[in-house]
Amino acid sequence: MHVVIVGGGWAGLSAAVTLCSHGIRVTLCESAPQLGGRARGLRWHTHTVDNGQHLLIGAYRATLSLLDTIGLDHRQLFQRQRLSLHLIQHGQPAIGLHTLRLPAPLHLIGGLMMTQGLNWRERWAALRFCVQLRARPPADDCSVADLLLQHTQPAALTTRLWEPLCLATLNTPIHIASARLFRRVLLDAFTGHAGNSDLLLPRTDLGRLLPEPATNYIKQRGGTVRCGSRVTELSYGNNRISSVRLDDATTLECDQLILAVPPYACGRLLAPLPGCQGLVDQLQQFTYSPICTVYLQYPESVQLPTALAGSAGTLTQWIFDRRTSGQPGLMAVIISADGPHVSLDQDALATAVQHELARMFPTWPTPLDRLVIREKRATFLSAINITRIRPQAHTKLPNLWLAGDHVATSYPATLEGAVLSGRSAAQALLAAAS
Ligand SMILES: Cc1cc2nc3c(=O)[nH]c(=O)nc-3n(C[C@H](O)[C@H](O)[C@H](O)COP(=O)(O)OP(=O)(O)OC[C@H]3O[C@@H](n4cnc5c(N)ncnc54)[C@H](O)[C@@H]3O)c2cc1C
Fold first, then answer.
1. Contact assessment for residue 182 and residue 170, using Cβ atoms and an 8 Å cutoff
2. Is the domain of 229 the same as that of 366?
3. What is the pLDDT of residues 352-378, one digit of tens each?
């Protein structure tokens, strides 16, 4: 059996590795010159940075298991630390939340009760919210803002804790973000094993984390990886996909096909096929949200007091110290979703962020270099009722499967969602073919 996988992001790689581990011959086609998709490494002068700083958590079981499958030791790949959130507001420490070294849920209860920057009423409200969320899911989906109102969360708690958490996890503002998905994310991180809420900070760039070792794994098992190969057309006959056409006019025969591309690219490939109009319409309903990363290179001695810090009331939302990835002095500043930064050009945005950091850390010198990366369609927008449009892995065609972070999993657009979807598509294909 020959399986063609279109898309070399983490979903496509996950599908390819799963199939190779079952002795299936795969060809992976990626249109970009390198693998990784929205989680890739890129060259900047002499070093490699990421297209955007990524953070994983201990609950990302499928991702950790994928790394195990290709023979990597994730204890070496990540700096793992208990959840520790430091939020700065107007240059002053606003919130300090740390989970405790206790079994779940005591690790969170204790952490919330000791949160610095919240008064007792706010601490109690946050704890009550978590308990009630666990006990009963919202009957109908609504916005996270409405959910917080229903649970009478104080306004200061919303702005300082829930709003930054919602933006960081769903990349969607609270007034339109799906309450159901937010609940799922909180439950995944905070219930079950205490380690689920641990933060996993990559010690290397994203390219070396998965795409490079996964490519070796696939090739060692007889698979083929073709970068710079855009699939332009699917050939259809007898209710099956028989081959794919590439932009260099070559044709690849296939027994099975996995489309691991974002909804807009998937819709384009499926549109000419008979019987796929319903799915194409569904894919067209996805909307997207940007993430912008501003890298500021300071002298190597410059260090954040913690590996990451949040900031409220500024363009800057999160600052990651890339010392963790072996790049001392390099700060990655993350700005999720839409906002006033979108209308600033690269230079103006880098300058604005640089001034914000100068106010937060007055002893830091001027940065030596700056880089702005904007990912316009970083994630799908996790809006109210998003689950209604997320497609399943199987389609009406018996040899066509879908993967990608947008496919129906319990996760928002994340690495874990992408990896889970790729593994599920591969497993469904194997079950159907056996
Ligand atoms: C800046 C940024 C920060 C993020 N931060 C986090 C984070 O901290 N934690 C987290 O878990 N997630 C984060 N995410 C989300 C995460 O990166 C994505 O959910 C995940 O990478 C999606 O993987 P995917 O394989 O589903 O899609 P993609 O990565 O988009 O892969 C699809 C691939 O298909 C290729 N392709 C498209 N059309 C064709 C074609 N016709 N032929 C061949 N190839 C094609 C594309 O080039 C692409 O490589 C972040 C994303 C961004 C952009």
1. yes
2. no
3. 999 999 999 999 999 999 999 999 999
